[in-house]
Every structure is written in structure tokens, then in C-alpha cells.
């Protein structure tokens, strides 16, 4: 089968760990870098939203601890033109429902050692007694005000709040978010590097015009939750998926698009990991050997699947929570020893989680779902998928892929950077391993960086739904292909 070509640019280098990242460090550094990086962006947004063209603009306080001084000024000068102030800081939700590993540890050393991180998780962190704190490098203050407004926040996001001082608390009237940087255009020429000559640019322009005349589309396949080895998964559906993507499955007259799928991104949880037996008093050598044999068998099956798929198309393989990768985010690429056959093909790429790349002109940014699942726990229970999808979209306004790291989601103690800050506004923003497919093309307006068009996609678990997602890289529209029978 002849498959369309595309230009691929990896953009996930910042998610890879340096040799010094593993040293013992404090997590405070990542918070400090986060607020220092996002503060200048917020200051521009504040000027455009609250300061410019205002007769009585609020006063911007550089530090949270300056609130105490302003409180005295408000008390002594009743004729102040404006009693509103603006603070910039990092949100912290003080809730009693967050997991406490020290408490679990005190109940028994062996039980803790036999559990994985997921066993310490709870379904929700939300409670009516939650208190919200805004903090910076110098101090912190409790936020009060409209509960609907404040309940939309999660731990770790950097925001600006406008309001009044009420004793030792700050009453919030309005919130300003960092938003996203400028978005690159989908209509630019694909070859724009300085080293590329005019002939190459001219050639690509001609190819682009010819493709538009023929109305040829290109698709990227998003796949997640294969969970090879899961007793609930159906190997026949996995084989059907492989035959479809490689072109061995006969195409229908209505949907001849297999040859137009230029790349596959597998968004984590490709292997099944059974939960450990918590009540087991000791783990014998025979039990460990048995579990190890199962992992090896499943890894071989995954290697065979990837090898066959990558022989036909480019494949990016992200790790997930159930995969044999490091626990802390950003998860590093799979070890090459797990793929003795797949690694021989140049079209197979072991990538990080989160992941970012550029396919032709379209920027893809996404993760395997842990960050979205964790953020959703800060909100009141409702329709879980709707809550998660709304939080997923909100994370774009927050300009951060995983703000709850490292508070309730483990991550590496980065010292001089926060890799989860969104550097390039995506055209396609995805999260894998969700219970059902959801998709919406949203339009973001900005005071300072222009309008943006983003396709937000929830990629369903394949072993549960038997579905994958196809994304048109030009129109950004997405749809599912089902392999259920």
C-alpha cells in the first residue's frame, strides 16, 4: 500500500531528563520557576484586561505579603479612589482528602512496599471544607469569594486575582489566566528553515497546490489503552486494528483512508499491569518469577505488534501509568531492550509522556491521561467525563500540562525549568486512556497573543471501546473508527 508522506519534527526534547535531574533536590524549585515564567505573561494580560483604558484601575501588588501594608492604608484613607488590588501567585487547594503516604506507611511497612502509587489514590479530593491559598516566593494568603469562581481552580496553576482585602484574607472578584502563546499558522509553507533553498520551497508549494486540487487529506491515528495481556482485551480486535492500519484489511468504498494515515501515536498503557495483592504478607521468589514471566510475554507481544505496524507507517510510542516506565512525570521513553524487533525499523520512535511533535504544520501536544484524571479530582462529582473534558480545556488557559505536579501527581524535581509549561500552542491537544471519545474544536481569544483554534480530543481506551481516533491534520476534525463486532 502506498502511503502519503509528511514532514515530522520532534518537539519533546524538554521532557527528557538530564543526568543531573535525578540528584536529590527540593520540589520548591519547580514552583519558583513556574511563577517566574508565567508572571510576565500575566502582567501583560492584566494591563490589557484591567489597567488600560480604566478610569480607576486596581493597584498591582508585587508580593503577597504587601497585602498587610495595603490593609492599613485602606483603613486610614477612606477616600481612596480604588480599593481594589491585583495579586499574582500560585494556587494551593488545602483539602483533607489528599492521599497521605506517611499515614499509609505508619500502618505497616510491608503493605506499603507491596502497593503501587495508584493504590494510594482516592476518587476525589473535593470537600466543602476546602480552603484556597494564593502564594508566591514571599508569602501566602487565603482567598474567599464566589464559590463557583474559586472552585474552578486546581493546585499548582499560576493566576492573577482582582479583589479587595478583607482582614487577613483576599476576596476575589475576577480571575485572569496566563493563556497560550501565539499559535503558528497551518497555512505556512512546510519548509521554512534557513538551510533549505528556494527550489525546495518552490517544490513543496507546488505539491501543496496539487494536493489541494485533488482534495487529498492526511490523518494521524491516536490510539491508547491497548493493555496487551489484560484478560478483558480481545486479541482478535487487536489483530483487526493492525490489519486495518497496515492496509491488509479490505477498504470499503465509502472510506478509503488507510493510505492517508501518515502516522500513529500510541498514547500509553500499551501493557496490562495487574494490581498487586495488598493482603499478601510476603512476596515469594516464585510469585515474582511468575509475574516477571507474564510481563516478558506481554512485552514480546507488544514488540511484535509495533514491529508489524512500524513496517508500514511511522509510529510514536508513549509510556503510560501501566507500562514498564518510570513512575514520575515526565515519563521517559521505553527502554530499547523491550523492543528487539521494532527498534530495527527507523519509523519506530520511543517518545516521552507528555509528548509534543509537529506533523507537517500541525502541532500535536498530549499525554496518556494521568494529569487530566488527577486534576478532575479537585472538582465536585458530576458527570465525570464532562468534568474531565472541561478541566482538560481549562488547562490550556492555565498554560500548563500538569499543574498538580508535584503535589498530588509525582514528577521529577526539576531545578531550573518547568517542562510542563506549554511552549507552543497546539493545534491538536489530546489525552489518552479515557472512558469514552470526546472531541471539540475550540476558539481561544487572547488580549495579547491573538485568536487560536485548537482541537481537544479524548482518546478512548481501545481494550474497552475497540475505538481509535483519526485526526485530519488540516481541518483538525476528528472521528473514531470502531473495530467492534
TrEMBL record:
Location of the DNA polymerase delta subunit OB-fold domain: 26-175
Give a yes or no for keyword Coiled coil in this entry. yes
Gene3D superfamilies assigned: 2.40.50.430, 3.60.21.50
Coiled-coil features, chain-numbered ranges? 187-222
Print the keywords alphabetically.
Answer: Coiled coil, DNA replication
What family name appears in the similarity comment? Belongs to the DNA polymerase delta/II small subunit family.
Question: Protein name, please?
Answer: DNA polymerase delta subunit 2
The species is Anaeramoeba flamelloides
